[in-house]
């Protein structure tokens, strides 16, 4: 085994952060070097392994990064991501940014880090979702000249605790489709009597139910036939495995912005 990649986890006490901690500790190529959370987190000062339910791992939850790490994996909140991106920029630490729900201003702040360090800012870390994005682009490209037009709807389901809607992944699917097919209107749900549906719009529908970890369906509706492309996450670990794959890729890159398509060689 070669030298291990030292990983820091931002948002380590959260649901996703805890799973990152567990799976980093199980990966022989990785070593957990730091666990970060907000300054008012009740987990501060505790062994992050105890917080994650796997027993002590010798790394305590802190609010500031004091250890040396090669890469940070962020599953926190928008403000937390902005904060750690500035640290990564200053110390030239690779950053895998998996937090969604950023405002345009926050996104721009995070992107500044790419001037001095490698950065992945992805709407979704799932390997399956990123393959699906390529399939959706190919479908949109092939269907854009359909003689009777194509109606596109994006349906997403997530757990009741998710705070942003539609999901960043759903919006990214819409961007991919509009880039290929030219839709100019993005409609979030419908009610009342909006009239006949124009083909110039993409409809988004966000469902929040129970503990659903993530499900996206892209509907291409035509006269006489329909294509449904669906990807489902069964556990949160699917996002973590993608983030770990991204971390390994990113640690070998120079400063700049990279995508999961780069990681998976989907370009």
Please describe what this structure looks like.
With 267 residues, the chain is an alpha/beta fold. It is 33% helix and 25% strand. The strands form two sheets. A seven-stranded parallel sheet has the order 3-2-1-4-5-6-12, with helices on both faces. The chain has a five-stranded mixed sheet with strand order 8-9-7-10-11, covered by helices on one side. Helix 1 crosses helix 7, helix 3 runs parallel beside helix 4 and helix 5 runs parallel beside helix 6 (168-181). It starts with a strand and ends with a helix.
Please give a handful of descriptors for the protein shown.
267 residues; alpha/beta; seven-stranded parallel β-sheet; five-stranded mixed β-sheet; 12 strands; 33% helix; elongated
Q: Oligomer, anyone? A: single chain
Question: Which H/E pattern describes the elements?
Answer: EHEHEEHEHEHEHEEEEHEH
Count the DSSP helices.
8
The profile of the biggest β sheet is: 7 strands, parallel
Helix content: 25-40%
Mean pLDDT: 95
N- and C-termini, Cα separation: 30 Å
Order of strands across the main sheet: 3-2-1-4-5-6-12
Radius of gyration: 20 Å
What is the count of β-strands?
A: 12
Large-scale geometry: elongated
Contiguous low-pLDDT stretches (5 residues minimum) are none
Structural classification: alpha/beta
Which percent range describes the beta-strand content? 15-25%
Write the layout of secondary structure elements.
Elements: E1 5-10, H1 15-26, E2 30-36, H2 48-52, E3 61-62, E4 71-74, H3 78-91, E5 94-97, H4 104-111, E6 118-121, H5 127-143, E7 151-158, H6 168-181, E8 185-188, E9 201-208, E10 215-222, E11 225-232, H7 237-250, E12 256-258, H8 260-264
Parallel strand pairs: 1-2, 1-4, 2-3, 4-5, 5-6, 6-12, 7-9, 8-9
Antiparallel strand pairs: 7-10, 10-11
Helix pairs in contact: 1-7, 3-4, 5-6
């Amino acid at each position: 085994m070669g030298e291990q990649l030292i990983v820091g986890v931002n948002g380590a006490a959260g649901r996703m952060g805890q799973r990152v901690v567990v799976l980093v500790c199980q990966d022989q190529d990785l070593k957990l070097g730091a666990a970060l959370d907000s300054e008012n987190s009740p987990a501060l000062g505790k062994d992050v392994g105890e917080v994650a339910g796997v027993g002590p791992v010798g790394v305590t939850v802190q609010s500031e990064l004091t250890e040396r790490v090669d890469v940070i994996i962020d599953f926190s909140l928008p403000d937390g991501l902005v904060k750690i991106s500035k640290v990564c920029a200053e110390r030239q630490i690779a950053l895998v940014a998996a937090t969604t729900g950023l405002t345009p201003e926050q996104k721009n702040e995070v992107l500044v880090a790419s001037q001095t360090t490698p950065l992945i800012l992805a709407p979704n870390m799932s390997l399956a979702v990123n393959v699906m994005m390529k399939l959706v682009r190919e479908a949109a490209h092939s269907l854009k000249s359909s003689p009777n037009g194509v109606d596109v709807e994006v349906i997403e389901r997530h757990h009741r605790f998710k705070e942003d809607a539609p999901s960043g992944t759903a919006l990214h699917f819409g961007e991919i489709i509009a880039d290929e097919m030219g839709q100019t209107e993005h409609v979030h749900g419908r009610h009342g009597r909006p009239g006949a549906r124009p083909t110039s719009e993409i409809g988004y529908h966000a469902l929040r139910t129970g503990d659903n970890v993530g499900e996206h369906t892209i509907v291409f509706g035509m006269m006489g036939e329909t294509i449904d492309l669906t990807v489902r996450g069964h556990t949160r670990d699917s996002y973590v495995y993608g983030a770990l794959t991204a971390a390994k890729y990113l640690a070998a890159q120079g400063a700049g912005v990279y995508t999961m398509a780069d990681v998976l060689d989907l370009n």
